[in-house]
Amino acid sequence: EWNRRVIDVTGYTKEHVIGKDFLSFVLESCRAEAHRVLSDAFAGQSTPNFEVLVATTVKEPVTFLLSAAPHMSSAGNILGVICIGQDITHIKELEVKKSQFAATVTHELRSPLHGIIGLSDNLLAEIQEKGRMHRSMLMINNCARRLLDLVTNIMDLSSLVQSKRMKLSRDPVHIAKIIEEVIMLTTCAVDKAGHPV
Prior knowledge:
The protein has 6 helices and 3 strands.
């Protein structure tokens, strides 16, 4: 059923679309996928949750999240295809804004972190004695590097999730170095009252 909501969103009336190929309203970028889904439905196979971009007469193309299923007669014959879905254009726009915001925040975080790492590297090279000053500067350097790694990993994970290509890799972990850094951090740690932890 080409209902009132679809008319409001696309601008196409029921009379305008009846008798026409649904794929003619689908943008070329996702027409092949839509054709595959409809072909599967006519073959008796349902497809849940597939996205299509549909051209409109009133504004930019809209994104529909649809589920397609064969329309069966009482005798079990396939009469057509039923598509049920919702307009998710606003959600897709929010996802783009979220990605842009994350990219901006990441850039703004990376710049000062690179500066902190570079300055602390220089100071570490100038400090001759490996005493308290050297340990403190090493802690600053290590914390900045970990934060930079965290920011980079978050962005990488976000990109992987969006592209739907999750790929994991195994990297060696140096337990002794981690324990050494934990000991160094806790040695200099203090509580809110200024007492050693």
